[in-house]
Amino acid sequence: MNSLDLLRGFNATVGRVAPRHVADQARRRFMTPRDTHPRDWELPWLERAERITLRFGLSALRWGSGPTVLLMHGWEGRPTQFASLIDALVQAGYGVVALDAPAHGHSPGREANIVLFARALLEAAEELPPLQGVVGHSMGGVSAMLATQLGLRTQALVTIAAPSRVLGMLRGFARFIGLPPRAGEQFIRRVGEHAGIPAEDIDVRRYRLDIPGLIVHAEDDRMVPVIEAGRIHEAWSDSQLLRLEGGGHQRVLADPRVVAAVLHLFDEVGLRASA
């Protein structure tokens, strides 16, 4: 029996008699990212980057100069996962800033959540020149959409492999670790309390998205189903949808079609703004 089976067995048994206790443990597990290390192919991009520290301690990497594009990785992700996009943006004359999310990389904290990701984007935007664009992958994408509802200003927004809402993610996690129904409900409630926004409110269908956008998703993404992209597109009138037959959840970041579509969007809104 492996550790996941043991966890599920514990949750299934104890969760029926002490749902709050099990829910609290699940909440901490859900909000505590594991350390991840850059792959060998990412190391050259770390060497070329300028490490900067923002006012409230957030760490970020910066490349190039020009109109600013802000990048936010996903859960347990890294800025250098955007290497292909960073390369193309810098060559096209953009300045790129990629955040270490709260409790990730060099940024402070032990726990993180979507609201903290979103507030990190807001804090970064306050210290940077006006943003030409924001790109978020996975949890970085859903947090970027939330950030626009909290006041983030940018000329364009790109989400890659992002879910349309949080509630589905939480229910999926609760099922994965074997929480009984009452413990699962407590878990979802506790996540909302710690994040400061109820889970049901973090849903693109409740947002007003009135900036140009690009939604990217691979058909074979096993972490976030491609149907999520369609839901985002339906709720976002000024958006383009790019669905790819392959690329999974991570490899899609390096797809040349994604890079080209992002550059096209940013160039397009830049020309529109200067006209």
TrEMBL record:
Pfam families: Abhydrolase_6 (PF12697)
All residue ranges annotated as the AB hydrolase-1 domain in the record: 69-261
Gene3D superfamilies in UniProt: alpha/beta hydrolase
Keywords on record: Hydrolase
SUPFAM superfamilies: alpha/beta-Hydrolases
Entry annotated with the keyword Hydrolase: yes
Domain of life the protein comes from: Bacteria
GO molecular function: hydrolase activity
Family annotation (PANTHER family): HYDROLASE, PUTATIVE (AFU_ORTHOLOGUE AFUA_2G14860)-RELATED, MONOACYLGLYCEROL LIPASE
Name under which the protein is recorded: Alpha/beta hydrolase
Organism: Pseudomonas solani
